[in-house]
Automatic annotation (TrEMBL), chains A, B:
GO MF term list: xanthine phosphoribosyltransferase activity
Keywords: Cytoplasm, Glycosyltransferase, Purine salvage, Transferase
CDD domains documented for this protein: PRTases_typeI (cd06223)
Keyword presence, Transmembrane helix: no
Chain positions recorded as xanthine binding sites: 20, 27, 156
Gene name per UniProt: xpt
Top EC class for this record: transferase
Location of the protein in the cell: Cytoplasm
Pathway noted in the entry: Purine metabolism; XMP biosynthesis via salvage pathway; XMP from xanthine: step 1/1
Biological function: Converts the preformed base xanthine, a product of nucleic acid breakdown, to xanthosine 5'-monophosphate (XMP), so it can be reused for RNA or DNA synthesis.
Protein's name according to its UniProt entry: Xanthine phosphoribosyltransferase
Lineage: Bacteria, Pseudomonadati, Thermodesulfobacteriota, Desulfobacteria, Desulfobacterales
GO cellular component assignments: cytoplasm
A Pfam family that the UniProt record links to this protein: Pribosyltran
Gene Ontology biological process terms from the UniProt entry: purine ribonucleoside salvage; xanthine metabolic process; XMP salvage
């Protein structure tokens, strides 16, 4: 997605060889026009799939999932990272390992909000090692629902998570795929 | 807002006399059509204000802020609860006390995303004792920006936070104001 790649080059910043900061438009300040263009692009890629629900994980997937859902005209469900009084007791659980925080944690969705006849699209802001999507996939499987695929705004292709998910049969669509952040240079996968 | 009150009565559930669960449409599963109607209602209430930025706090304010921002055609900034590698070092801070968790915590916004000439509208899902809005207000003041007001989807009017903020001069607009949750009965403030 050309517009997104241009935005990443113009406003993204690299921290070392692995971190790309895009908090100018994607996960601290939100550029709503860009999110709309992103939502439209996801719709284009999954338009034949009769999606019934969009699934994401808190925190930074929520805005892009909500705006994207307008293009599909379906509800969003976001998996929660913390147990709280307000979460139903009966939940589907997914297991996620955070490489940055070096710990395992659980994400949860109330059993009321994913049903066996749901056709689910996962939406997230970043895909690095694929842990969040793996955890969300586990939740969809526990619900007996059908996982249509995953749409991510930015794939850090060089971290390999996307291709591991594709090898397992998941349709993973990234709107920008980054092959390297070395020396402050952002390089994109061609022919996306 | 009649549509919202009807939704609360139909799909909300009370837990004791203080908690209203609306995770069916507002903070776990998201009803995107309803969020759009909510965004439109906020626009109507603040249309004369030349808003330049919408400010909210993670997690549950993000979806409603993002959808609302489409109606104002301005960016969203969401304050973060956790320090992370990806957050800028230079931040404005607000202090929040969580009555449910019985602890103080900080919320932060990068100094890049709030400027002195910003006219800020705070958007959040719930207003109970007003702590989150108080913390966000502190952030707006630290930035030297102008706080136009706060729009909340549901005010738990009986907890008094909204009126304490109004007494301090803030224009607080709630789309549904609840005066009591006693005995499982949801009662709304009239003439809203």
């Amino acid at each position: 997605m050309k517009l997104l790649e241009e935005k990443i080059v113009k406003e993204g910043r690299t921290l070392g060889d692995h971190i790309l900061k895009v908090d100018h438009f994607l996960n601290h300040q939100l550029d709503i026009d860009l999110l709309n263009a992103i939502g439209k692009a996801f719709k284009e890629r999954f338009k034949e799939e009769r999606i019934t629900k969009i699934l994401t994980a808190e925190v930074s997937g929520i805005a892009v999932a909500a705006i994207t859902a307008q293009h599909f005209k379906v509800p969003v469900v976001f998996a929660k990272k913390t147990e709280s009084l307000n979460l139903d007791k009966e939940t589907f659980e997914g297991h996620v390992y955070s490489y940055t925080k070096e710990k395992h944690y659980k994400i949860r969705v109330s059993k009321n909000y994913l049903l066996p006849d749901d056709r689910v699209l996962i939406i997230d802001d970043f895909l690095a090692k694929g842990e969040a999507i793996k955890g969300l996939w586990e939740i969809v499987e526990s619900a007996g629902a059908y996982l249509v695929g995953a749409g991510v705004v930015i794939e850090k292709y060089f971290q390999g998570g996307g291709n591991r998910l594709r090898e397992k049969g998941l349709n993973v669509q990234a709107l920008a795929s980054i092959t390297s952040l070395k020396n402050g240079q952002i390089t994109f996968l061609e022919n996306q």
